[in-house]
Amino acid sequence: MEKILVINGGSSSFKYQVLEKGTERRLCQGLVERIGSADSLLTHKRFGENGEEEKFVYPGNYHNHAAGMDKVAEVLLNAELGGVIADRSEIVVIGHRVLLGGPLKNAIVTEEVKQIIRDFIPLGPLHNPANLTGIEAMEKIFPGVPNVAVFDTGFHSTMPDYAYTYALPKELTQKYGLRRYGFHGSSHSFVSKAAAALLGKAPADVNVIVCHLGNGSSISAVRGGKCVDTSMGTTPLQGVVMGTRSGDIDPALVPFLMKNEGLSADEIDTIMNKKSGYLGLCGHSDSRDIEAGMAAGDPDCKLTYEVQCYSVKKYIGAYMAVLGHVDCIAFAGGIGENAVGVRAHILEGLEEFGIKVDPELNKIRGSQHRYISTEDSRVKVAVIPTDEELEICRISVELVNAQ
């Protein structure tokens, strides 16, 4: 049985899955977290043919990503530990989520591709080194098996130059590769295709606005299956207000705060990325806590909720103008899939644009792809639980088959 291994790596953790080629049935999944700490942990789940689940937990001192991947390989190859691979030859491709590849689209890993990942370490200092370590670890564990880099930025590489260009001195943008790259690419790719399928059409025949809303959030405008604009920029800081990220602000605030508060570049970066957003406004970074605080009468939570929804509404309006015609607005991510009130408030008052949400449909929870708009809504509104690992699997198989 041919199988695909998917690695979804972060700066201090990584998720993985093994899927059966062809059927796309999930055989197992796991998470290695707190990498570099003495209390790092591997949690592994194996799934039976009827969906039954077995859970295995392996505490350990996984001092880096390579050590964690060595343990994952040990587990995957041993049925008693929860493994689903009888022989290394069953793995025919390994797909990796990689944060930043610049303008490069998804690619089979070569020495040249690895060098591009290295070249963009200055713009992705936490993730790119970890992603590269993961690739090189898998090259040793499964020698000869093709590895595929599925870049967070890959889906957005189709943006036209006028959408990704920053109006900074040309010599600086060229020297440092400064432009809008966008992130959450595998999610935007999966959701836009799923929205087309829900409409009963091919991706090439529909225009979709994807709202990936979670602790990190981004919006994209997808015309005919290709991204033409997205809210995040050179880094994931730009765009809508997020859990701990400020999103769009007046850039003059950066030197103003550095001068008046005596802050270093690193300190202002920490403030904007880790101490701002919902957290900075009300002390909570979780949308559920914000809604609970609002219900209890907390004015800061109320303001945060309004700021959150308003920032998304503005991007939807902008992307309706960019696309000209919109077939579907699709919500995904932890907030997009679960926050009933947030979805309703974002789209409130947009009836003149052909957007009508059915309050009862919006209340329904579940994992299925579904409409939450009224039957007469000209623009359909959908909730589509994202599946980044499945999209990474599909992209990886497609690239290897195209060789």
Outline the structure in words.
The protein has 403 residues and is α/β, with parallel strands linked by helices. It has helices spanning 65-76, 111-119, 127-141, 161-164, 170-176, 185-199, 253-261, 265-274, 277-282, 287-295, 299-323, 333-338, 340-347, 359-363, 388-401; strands spanning 3-9, 14-20, 26-33, 41-47, 53-59, 91-98, 107-108, 147-151, 207-212, 218-223, 226-230, 328-332, 370-371, 380-383. It has an eight-stranded mixed β-sheet, with helices on both faces. A six-stranded mixed β-sheet has the order 11-10-9-12-14-13, with helices on both faces. Strand 13 and strand 14 (380-383) form a beta hairpin. The longest helix has 25 residues, at 299-323.
Query: What is the N-to-C succession of helices and strands?
Result: EEEEEHEEHHEHHHEEEHHHHHEHHHEEH
By DSSP, the count of extended strands is: 14
Number of DSSP helical runs: 15
Flag low-confidence runs.
none
Mean pLDDT: 95
Which strand-content bin applies to the residues?
15-25%
Biggest sheet descriptor: 8 strands, mixed
The Rg value, from CA coordinates, equals: 21 Å
Q: What is the straight-line distance between the termini?
A: 21 Å
**Helix proportion of residues, in percent?**
25-40%
